[in-house]
From TrEMBL:
This is Cupin type-1 domain-containing protein. InterPro entries: Cupin_1 (IPR006045), RmlC-like_jellyroll (IPR014710), RmlC_Cupin_sf (IPR011051), Seed_Storage-Functional (IPR050253). The lineage of its organism: Eukaryota, Viridiplantae, Streptophyta, Embryophyta, Tracheophyta. It comes from the Eukaryota. Residues 2-105, 138-266 form the Cupin type-1 domain. It comes from Vitis vinifera. It holds the Pfam family Cupin_1. Coiled coil: none annotated.
Length: 275
């Protein structure tokens, strides 16, 4: 399973992630800020830590067709009540890590939480690497948009051409910011609403409307392959982050965002009627 993590803007600017990549001999610790995108390749081990005083919101999106249960994230926890090490006997763990039985019990059983864990007061955590992390993290909020329509909105597309590390997970991403009462056409696959609200319609290949509903911050929806989605922002505007299986800029621009338009724009009758 491969995934891409996105730090929700204006929620928290503090966070730390630690990762050990397949066949790597050292852990990499990175400082996170709002708008960061962090790919996590299949086989990588990671932990995520809120080192600030406010809420940290991270959206995990990924390609799960090859997961243990297709369509669901497969978590391989190392320790804790559902951890892999807890399934082995103390003898096996102590011999594998060349530690005492007491140390093996602590390694496998001392952590009682699952997924979300509150650390004890004064717990020390690894410090972020001082070396450049540009190769591992990309801030899509700070990037120049690929499409910017005045008084309508903008789209920023991210592919391996801009961020080579993203190519290792075989995915691409887009960030769309829509001004109030404007609309965008799209056919992305997984969409997370980060800010604002609006209305979404999804139409299938036979011209049947599959979805017509209101969306707001915190909502996530999926647009299947060959389906087309269109979104209209409410008065407060709308901002969403999407993940695509396309890897080329041309595919993203042409399939995920055909244009930002006003919802009161007038098309000629010839265009509206299809010729």
């Amino acid at each position: 399973m491969i995934s891409v993590e996105y730090i929700i803007p204006e929620i928290c600017s503090c966070g730390v992630v630690g990762m050990v990549f397949p066949e790597a001999s050292e852990e990499v610790v990175l400082k996170l800020k709002e708008g960061d995108i962090i790919p996590v390749p299949s086989g990588a081990v990671s932990w995520w830590y809120n080192d600030g005083d406010s809420e940290l919101v991270i959206v995990f999106l990924g390609e799960t067709s090859k997961a243990y249960v297709p369509g669901e994230f497969t978590y391989f926890l190392l320790t804790g009540t559902q951890g892999i090490l807890g399934g082995f006997s103390t003898e096996f763990n102590s011999r594998a890590y060349n530690i005492s039985n007491e140390e093996a019990k602590k390694l496998a059983k001392s952590q009682t939480g699952v997924l979300l864990i509150k650390l004890p007061e004064g717990q020390k955590m690894p410090h972020p690497c001082k070396n450049s992390t540009d190769k591992l993290v990309y801030n899509i909020d700070a990037a120049l948009p690929d499409i910017h329509v005045q008084n309508a909105g903008l789209l920023t597309a991210l592919t391996a051409k801009k961020f080579p590390f993203l190519g290792e997970v075989g995915l691409s991403a887009t960030l769309v910011k829509m001004d109030a009462k404007y609309a965008a056409d799209s056919s992305v696959q997984v969409i997370y609403v980060a800010k604002g609200s609006g209305r979404i319609q999804v139409v299938g290949i036979n011209g049947e409307r599959a979805l017509d509903t209101k969306v707001k911050a915190g909502h996530l929806y999926v647009v299947p392959r060959f389906f087309v989605a269109s979104t209209i922002a409410d008065g407060e505007g709308l901002e969403y982050f999407s993940l695509l299986t396309a890897t080329h800029m041309g595919s993203i621009i042409s399939t995920s965002f055909t244009g930002l338009i006003r919802n009161d724009a007038q098309l000629s009758e010839t265009i509206q009627m299809g010729g």
